Amino acid sequence: MTEIITSSPAATEAFAETIARRFTGGEIIAFKGGMGMGKTCFTRGVARGLDYEGQVTSPTFALVNEYLGGRLPLFHFDMYRIESWEDLYSSGFFDYAERGGVMAVEWSENIEAALEGREVITVELQQINEDTRRILLEGGIY
Fold this sequence. Notes:
Radius of gyration: 14 Å
Order of helices and strands: EHEHEEHHEHEE
Shape: globular
Distance between the termini: 11 Å
CATH architecture: 3-Layer(aba) Sandwich
Strand content: 25-35%
Oligomer: single chain
Structural class: alpha/beta
CATH topology: Rossmann fold
CATH superfamily: P-loop containing nucleotide triphosphate hydrolases
CATH class: Alpha Beta
Number of strands: 7
Mean pLDDT: 92
């Protein structure tokens, strides 16, 4: 496990951008951390690292946001409301997994069974103070 401390949202994004520059497709980022911890902020950095130039927003109401036009597609999921396998299938999660892009999964705790046996980069974000985050990384290339 690797631990990184960032002192601002911009530093969190820059760290995520650095990691994403190494991605080749098929990566699954499984976020852990409560509301306001910086999961979408981290995903904005991933998008920049994939050379995506558009706006990145939380997929809270859409369940999944697709960011196309970078060197790899980025699929940003919010699994907060996923309560069953049926919910997960209807989200399109398994179809997206076959598309070879990068998947950023907020509230990954809700789909742990679906992530078993897959190569996953776990990113746990913990709040130290208003702007400072402890980022714990496990798995994958970073």
